[in-house]
Amino acid sequence: MFCYQCQETAGNKGCTKIGVCGKNEDVANLQDLLIYTTKGLAGLVVKKGKACAKVYDRISNNLFITITNANFDESAILDAIKKTMAFKEKIMGKIGTEGLSDVEKYLSYDDEELKRKAIEVGVLNIINEDQRSLVELVTYGLKGMAAYNHHANVLGFRNEEVDFFIAKALAKTTHKDKEVGDLIDLVIKTGEHGVMAMALLEMANTETYGNPEITEVDFSAGKNPGILISGHDLHDMKMLLEQTKGTGIDVYTHSEMLPANYYPEFKKYDNFHGNYGNAWWKQNEEFEKFNGPILMTTNCIVPPKKNNTYLDRMFTTSNAGFPGANHIEADENGYKDFSAIIEMAKSCQAPENLEDIKVVGGFAHNQVLALADKVIEEVNSGNIRKFVVMAGCDGRSSKRNYYTDFAQSLPKDTVILTAGCAKYRYNKLGLGDINGIPRVLDAGQCNDSYSLVQIALALKDAFGLDDVNDLPIEYNIAWYEQKAVIVLLALLSLGVKNIHLGPTLPAFLSPTVVDFLVENFNIAGNTTVEEDLEKMIG
Ligand code: SF4
Ligand code: SF3
């Protein structure tokens, strides 16, 4: 195996024996084969000129399932490979096989043959370091985009341009004569389509569940048994709330599901208790104490430790999977029957209280723009000197204490704009407010970074500026998995410069690609809190 797609990759070089995330060699190789065969299907879609929604969904699901910490289940990956083969076979039946490449033509339904092939098709097959770096940068960006696209699709929202672009970009990464210049263009185009996918998801979420509102979220535990829901899928959240109504079971969000608390549609449910716990990487300890069933709707799953007892209380759904956990699939109408989770919860004890704290969030762009006059007034009067976008992912590395220290050391006339699970590094610090404007404005999940861009663009217009980089906004982004890659590419495609990216630069960026990003976008890594504060705030 060789995998270097996330920030925690071994030695900041690559995982070669087992993933730091817990992914084993067989799953890692099969995920490589799934990407390979998905690229083959994408090539066929491009040759055909279009595809039906089912094929596009297959492509998005395949990419999503390989995101860090989403799925550790070999049988789920094999199943996805075979379903992809079936679509390939169908398309080849229509367009024939003449002129097709090896990746497009490859077909097999035999487990042993697939496992043999899986060893052959890894990342290191591209020998040229710069080509490999750019191909992986595009592929990881597409994984993040596909996840956001999937969440919009299940709510009935679709943008065919995004669907077709994902196929086209995947197909382009397989071309034999890839020029570095063409691949760089593809990176930027991936970012542009990432913006479209995030816009689509924002439209899907707000049209379905209303605009996020400023909300004080309770992090304490109640007296009733509960179900904990984690991940990013708001459609699952809605179905769970609907099915637990009147059962005496409370629902709690975890990690990236926290922003569900901000949506008017979910506030209607009396049994929606609040949030339990922190970012994904603390789950071994927190799931143990929760006592009730846990539903993982997407990444990020941490494999339970030997002394953990909650595996039989853990449920996964759609692209999330873990061997030994209970898996719930949607029926042909997209409905998921969560009765097994609810029945289990009834026999469980209430969660152990972790903390008595309330945290305010819900500052997506619609809400911030409602406060725009006040924000502009505070900037003009000098009470707000700068905004610092600190969006992205959290992770276990001790280096990430940097973000807590950085937030704590920011001068009191600065405001943090955040989204994603990165917020857990500073959302409980009690950083106060500036004349009623909280100093940490949480827009929501990682995809809601789109909201932060909308806020920046609105401020640019309000201040009559031509360039978004002239705003008093700094970017200090934390990344972990591939959704953060598409957020980064989206920001670059919108012309945002001077982004600090940490806690380490991606291992998959070759020196040439880093030079390109520095020259064109002035991207920088992190240094020390003091040095970075000096650079960003002065
Ligand atoms: Fe390693 Fe990250 Fe890949 Fe897991 S996803 S195998 S931690 S690089
Ligand atoms: Fe977090 Fe996994 Fe990325 Fe959605 S939950 S931001 S790491």
TrEMBL record:
Reaction catalyzed: A + NH4(+) + H2O = hydroxylamine + AH2 + H(+)
Binding locations of [4Fe-4S] cluster: 3, 6, 15, 21
GO terms, molecular function: hydroxylamine reductase activity
Xref: InterPro entries: HCP/CODH, Hydroxylam_reduct, Prismane-like_a/b-sand, Prismane-like_sf, Prismane_a-bundle
Keyword terms: 4Fe-4S, Cytoplasm, Iron, Iron-sulfur, Metal-binding, Oxidoreductase
Gene3D superfamilies: 1.20.1270.20, 3.40.50.2030
Pfam families: Prismane
Record-listed hybrid [4Fe-2O-2S] cluster binding positions: 232, 256, 300, 393, 421, 446, 481, 483
Cofactor binding note: Binds 1 hybrid [4Fe-2O-2S] cluster.
Subcellular location: Cytoplasm
Post-translational modification Cysteine persulfide, affected residues: 393
Domain of life, per lineage: Bacteria
Keyword Protein transport: no
Cofactor(s) in the UniProt record: hybrid [4Fe-2O-2S] cluster; [4Fe-4S] cluster
UniProt keyword annotation of Lipoprotein present: no
Enzyme class: oxidoreductase
EC number: 1.7.99.1
Family from the record: Belongs to the HCP family.
Described purpose of this protein according to its UniProt entry: Catalyzes the reduction of hydroxylamine to form NH(3) and H(2)O.
Official protein name in the record: Hydroxylamine reductase
Species of the source: Anaerococcus degeneri
